Amino acid sequence: MPRRPIGDSRSEAEKAFKAATTRPVAAPPQAPAIPGARETVSLRIDRDVLDFFQEDGPGWQDRINAALRKAAGK
C-alpha cells in the first residue's frame, strides 16, 4: 500500500473533523402570522417624541403605532 504524504492525511483529517463537529446554522422557525397580533419590540426614540405621545396619558403606545402605520402608508 503506497504511503500518503503527511500533509494530505492531516488535511483530510481536518476536513473530516470539521464536517463532524460543525453544525449548520438553522433559521429560527417562522411563526404563522396572526391578523391583528402585536409584537413586543424595543425601540429607541428621542425623549421629546416619547413625551409628546405620553402627554395625553394611557394609550400612548397605540398612538405611536397609529402614527407609524400612517407613515408607512397603511
How does this model look, in words?
The protein is mainly α. 49% of the residues lie in helices and 0% in strands. The longest helix has 16 residues. The mean pLDDT is 86.
Tally of helical runs:
3
Portion in helices: 40-55%
Can you tell me the residue ranges where pLDDT is under 50 for at least 5 consecutive residues? none
Main β-sheet: number of strands, strand sense, barrel status? none
SS-based structural class? mainly alpha
C-alpha Rg, in Å?
A: 28 Å
Average pLDDT score: 86
**Helix and strand element order:** HHH
Beta content: under 5%
Shape: elongated
* Straight-line N-to-C gap: 73 Å
Give me a quick take on this structure.
49% of the residues lie in helices and 0% in strands. With 74 residues, it is mostly helical.
Features:
74 residues, mainly alpha, 3 helices, 49% helix, 0% strand
Write the layout of secondary structure elements.
Blueprint: H1 6-21, H2 47-54, H3 60-71
